[in-house]
From TrEMBL:
Record's keyword annotation contains Transcription: yes
Descriptive protein name: LysR family transcriptional regulator
Organism, as annotated: Jiella pacifica
Residue ranges occupied by any HTH lysR-type domain in the UniProt entry: 11-68
Family: Belongs to the LysR transcriptional regulatory family.
Domain of life: Bacteria
SUPFAM superfamilies (UniProt xref): Periplasmic binding protein-like II, Winged helix' DNA-binding domain
Matching PROSITE patterns: HTH_LYSR
Molecular function GO terms recorded: DNA binding; DNA-binding transcription factor activity
Length: 322
């Protein structure tokens, strides 16, 4: 059945919440009890939904009802829309200017965000933001679920489901890579041509095993036939803490080069010279869902971040001393 816009006019919010109840309870009788409706009335709501979307959303069997592949996609998109609506209701109730919900990776707090905020302060546009940090997978899922309006961070297209890729709007910002680092007083600091096998003999502080940076590090060790180091300590989504521990306890760590180059790490850590290690580049981008890209605050933040990326990608001018 083709999707016709006028078919959507008869839908109400309870129709969209119906999909969530069906997915949770797998019984139209149970859903009817929750909605205080008869089973035939719930069945009619399902028919109304399927007519509006032009697709079979619910599959029936002797064991009950389940969502079809189209129904699961509709549920995901409905959750995103309902979450945005709940956010709007909260904003209107607070009687304040809207808050842009932004997700990002901890590595970008060191340089990208300070640069962007300085540019925003010097301009005429103003945006109220709630910044939330976390690992890539969690941030993208929150964007997909409607809990975030946009995401600024690492982009791994091969790990995204096709249905998410189709509705994402992406602007590339910067590119960085991973680097191994240690304190300036560590025995490996300043050494040239360090062999990968030597690294397994030292203590490490690393992100969790499911983080992209940890996965990339372990893949490189395995590619060279070297035992993956077991970290003395793991820290989740806290690069600042990881760098402090590396400095104070003389541990090895693995962080994005953009973080090591920031003023926070300057004079505290140094990069290890391990020529055999070659990490893939890390793409950093701005992402939002198609339905959010026309929001004024999203457009302002996109412009500011693009300008910040251009500034970060421009080599500094040589000083007079040079």
């Amino acid at each position: 059945m083709p999707l016709l816009p006028h078919r959507l006019d008869g839908l109400r919010l309870r129709h969209l919440r119906l999909l969530e109840l069906i997915d949770e309870h797998r019984s139209l009788r149970a859903v009817g009890a929750i909605l205080n409706r008869t089973q035939p009335a719930v069945s009619q709501m399902v028919k109304d939904l399927e007519y509006a979307f032009g697709a079979t959303l619910v599959q029936r069997s002797v064991r009950g009802v389940t969502l079809s592949p189209a129904g699961k996609l509709a549920l995901q998109r409905a959750r995103s829309g309902l979450a945005s609506l709940d956010h709007l209701v909260a904003e209107l109730g607070a009687d304040q200017s809207p808050i842009l919900r932004v997700g990002t990776n901890p590595a970008l707090v060191f340089r990208m965000w300070p640069t962007a905020m300085r540019l925003l302060e010097t301009g005429t546009d103003r945006v109220r933001m709630r910044l939330r940090t976390g690992i890539v997978g969690d941030m993208l899922q929150s964007l997909w679920d409607g809990e975030l309006d946009c995401y600024v961070g690492r982009v791994d297209w091969d790990q995204m489901p096709p249905e998410m890729v189709r509705v994402l709007r992406h602007d590339p910002l910067i590119q960085t890579d991973l680097v191994l680092a240690c304190s300036l007083s560590h025995p490996l600091a300043g050494r040239k041509d360090i062999a990968i096998r030597e690294l397994a003999d030292w203590q490490w502080v690393l992100p969790p095993a499911d983080s992209n940076n940890r996965i990339a590090l372990e893949a490189e060790f395995r590619n060279h036939g070297v035992l993956v180091p077991a970290p003395m300590m793991e820290i989740s989504a806290d690069l600042a803490g990881m760098m402090i521990l590396a400095r104070e306890l003389e541990l090895l760590t693995c962080i994005p080069r953009s973080v090591l180059d920031s003023h926070i790490a300057a004079g505290q850590l140094c990069a290890l010279d391990v020529p055999a290690l070659t990490f893939p580049p890390i793409q950093i981008g701005f992402m939002t869902l198609a339905e959010h890209e026309d929001m004024a605050s999203v457009q302002i933040l996109r412009r500011v971040l693009t300008a910040a990326a251009q500034e970060m990608n421009t080599p500094p001018a040589p000083s007079a001393a040079d």
